[in-house]
């Protein structure tokens, strides 16, 4: 499986983390184990250039994915498995970055997918056709970025953006009362704004960012006791960390360590990628 990433253009760098591509050939896809994808605070736009993946969730079981769709914030893990030779293009928005391009309340997308045309209307159908028929990934990226730039119309929400920055810079450890005070909102208003503009409550996003920071520390490879990692990541104690791990991953930390991440999921969890996600690069 080949995985490549392309940084966004300067005009989109505040909103996008990257555009990524993954490809698998027919000889290898049948042997792929299911990939476990974990919540990371990012909304993604997926375009299947090859055979769509199958997606498993606790609510729906196995379902064949659409050819092109936006996937909202995840609050629990999902499993992905190729249904044939895979070729996928992904557009990964930064935490809190997708609202500038989407007119619908983002909590309508949480743990769900919505077809590209249903998100952006008939123009999206022509974009899909152009992306699928493009000869190179550079051309596909240019088409996607041009489409997004034309839809960068929704006004900025400075206090929401500041709250996102506080959550990330604190690695998910900031208390919600403190966060509300820092941006001049009540806690109720803070939660309402986050549901609409992020798809999660601020507390839920903070939990996910804290979990991703834990995964970053684990992925760095330095041998440390789990109890020390729990405290360093901001958990009350090791049992608290284990509960959060199971909630997001469906496994305990030791079970996760015993099973290697899939070829695709390993790129989403690399220390380099998590360092970028958490604004440490």
Short structural description:
By secondary structure, the protein is an alpha+beta fold.
Q: Can you give a write-up of this model?
A:
This protein is an alpha+beta fold and 281 residues long. It has helices spanning 26-29, 116-120, 123-133, 137-150, 158-169, 176-183, 187-197, 202-219, 226-233, 238-249, 253-258, 263-268, 271-277; strands at residues 2-6, 16-23, 35-37, 44-48, 53-57, 61-64, 68-71, 78-82, 87-93, 113-115. Strands 1-2-9-4-7-10 form a six-stranded antiparallel sheet. Strands 3-8-5-6 form a four-stranded antiparallel sheet. Helix 5 (158-169) runs parallel beside helix 8 (202-219), helix 8 packs across helix 9 and helix 8 packs antiparallel against helix 13 (271-277). The two termini are 26 Å apart. The model has no long low-confidence stretch (mean pLDDT 92).
Q: What is the number of helical segments per DSSP (H or I, 4+ residues)?
A: 13
Poorly predicted regions = none
Helix residue percentage: 40-55%
**Based on DSSP secondary structure assignment, what is the total number of beta strands?**
10
Outline type: globular
> Which structural category do the helix and sheet elements fall into?
alpha+beta
Instruction: Tell me the major beta sheet.
Output: 6 strands, antiparallel
Topology:
Layout: E1 2-6, E2 16-23, H1 26-29, E3 35-37, E4 44-48, E5 53-57, E6 61-64, E7 68-71, E8 78-82, E9 87-93, E10 113-115, H2 116-120, H3 123-133, H4 137-150, H5 158-169, H6 176-183, H7 187-197, H8 202-219, H9 226-233, H10 238-249, H11 253-258, H12 263-268, H13 271-277
Antiparallel strand pairs: 1-2, 2-9, 3-8, 4-7, 4-9, 5-6, 5-8, 7-10
Helix pairs in contact: 3-4, 5-6, 5-8, 8-9, 8-13
